[in-house]
Design goal:
Structural class: alpha/beta
Radius of gyration: 26 Å
Number of helices: 15
Oligomer: single chain
Helix content: 25-40%
Distance between the termini: 59 Å
Largest sheet: 7 strands, mixed
Number of strands: 16
Length: about 450
């Protein structure tokens, strides 16, 4: 082909079809685009414009990326979310009560497809009757706590993301499992295979870059996606207990059995990472624990929430989080400090169980946590509550050496009020644990020795 002169009055712009990780252009094609760009002004191609998923910002050929700029589209601001939702609701002849748009923006971080999915979810809510048909903030919060995640996981692209978790390659799954330990801080993608896993999670929509593509820092796409990660990872690990009954012979939730059965399903790698990433100094009086760096309450919560939610959902119970670790809160909590609330499905007056967590506390702090659990029970009109106190010790031998009599227990009055106490003593390597529990009518503690995850 003869050489073409540089254009004088016009330029040619190419617009590529939607890009995605499943239809990645070949390296040869990308290299050709790169060569065309470098050959300007001897070629008529001045700009190549491609739109696709977040994964498209990673596309590159052997000569490097053919892009001058690679940026994710900005998320909606809160005023933009407000305007969009108002337009969607105006088509139905309804208005939104103040606070709904702000809550949706907080849960979605302004992610466009998630905001739209929330807007569609609003169609399931009945507006107030009368002249001004409005969707109330209380109605939205109730729907959000009970049904929003299920609704979102039925929408594109979250449905594909959720379905992929069960077959996700181990490096991606381990990073997704440990990412919540960073809280609201950036996720540092370093270590063997971790940058590749982070890019793969970003290409699917789980993560977004923080501070640009080259920083190696990521954030969850939104709190809603973070919540979905906890739930789907928990469901993938809980398969071995899904067919087991979580109830005692009298139909009550078997709290001792619940904890004893899910402990081996907790990720040992994630709990070990928590001693460095989401930890505190132990205040326990036990010599094998005192002063050591141990996992924080939230580290245990992040693991237990997903496992219990998956298992108990199959048994017609809903598990709500009230710690900020997940996007869901009990619909009637009003800010109470319960770690989790388990409620039966089917009626508004279904039995409730409050779950409070403690991590490597001294005896006085454990007693205060017992009292706080009783306060949460009163706030939720829950006849039962359980305080699960974790204590991390140095080695499996130290686990076996701890007797139930060395631990703090509720008074008979507290037990009579519906409180159950569970102590979980485990080693920092997450290889062994003992579960001790006491409830009303049992003078001695019930104890179960458990072999835990020993993955490296």
């Amino acid at each position: 082909m003869p050489a073409m002169s540089a254009p004088t009055a016009s330029s040619l712009f190419l617009s590529l079809p939607p890009l995605s990780p499943r239809s990645t252009p070949s390296p040869q094609f990308l290299n050709s685009l790169h060569s065309l760009k470098e050959a300007w002004p001897r070629t008529t191609v001045q700009s190549v414009f491609g739109v696709g998923t977040l994964g498209s910002i990673f596309l590159e050929g052997r000569k490097g990326a053919p892009y001058c700029e690679r940026e994710a589209l900005p998320f909606f601001s809160e005023p933009q979310v407000q305007e969009l939702l108002q337009h969607m609701c105006a088509a139905r002849g309804v208005t939104l009560e103040a606070g709904i748009a702000a809550d949706i923006h907080a849960q979605t971080a302004g992610h466009a497809s998630q905001v739209v999915a929330c807007g569609r979810a609003l169609e399931a809510l009945e507006p107030t009757s009368g002249g001004d048909k409005a969707i109330t903030l209380d109605a939205w919060r109730d729907f959000s706590a009970r049904h929003l995640l299920t609704h979102m996981m039925a929408c594109e692209p979250l449905d594909r993301m959720a379905a992929f978790v069960a077959s996700m390659p181990p490096p991606m799954r381990e990073l997704l499992d440990s990412a919540p330990l960073f809280g609201s801080d950036p996720i540092w993608a370093y270590g063997r295979g971790v940058p590749e896993a982070a890019k793969a999670l970003a290409s699917q929509g789980w993560l977004v870059h923080h501070g640009g593509v080259a920083t190696g820092k990521f954030l969850f796409t939104s709190p809603l996606v973070r919540h979905m990660a906890l739930v789907r990872l928990g469901a993938a690990r809980a398969q071995s207990v899904m067919q087991l009954s979580p109830h005692t012979m009298d139909g009550q939730l078997d709290t001792h059995g619940l904890i004893a059965r899910v402990l081996p399903l907790i990720s040992g790698n994630t709990l070990r990472r928590a001693t460095h990433m989401l930890s505190k100094h132990s205040a326990s009086a036990l010599a094998a624990s005192r002063g050591q760096r141990v996992p924080d309450e939230l580290a245990y919560h992040l693991q237990l929430y997903g496992l219990l939610r998956a298992w108990l959902h199959a048994a017609r119970h809903t598990v709500y989080s009230d710690t900020g670790a997940a996007a869901t809160r009990p619909p009637s909590a009003h800010g109470s400090p319960a770690g989790m609330l388990i409620a039966g499905r089917g009626s508004t007056d279904a039995p409730k169980l409050v779950v409070e967590l403690a991590a490597s506390l001294c005896a006085d702090e454990v007693q205060a946590r017992f009292q706080r659990t009783l306060g949460c029970m009163a706030a939720h009109s829950a006849p039962q509550g359980v305080c699960v106190a974790f204590t991390a010790v140095s080695s499996p031998a130290d686990v076996s050496a701890v007797a139930a009599a060395q631990l703090a227990w509720p008074t008979e009055e507290q037990l009579a009020a519906g409180l159950t106490a569970i102590h979980v003593v485990h080693d920092l390597g997450w290889q062994a644990a003992v579960v001790h529990s006491r409830r009303l009518g049992h003078a001695e503690a019930c104890s179960t020795h458990i072999r835990l995850d020993d993955e490296s």
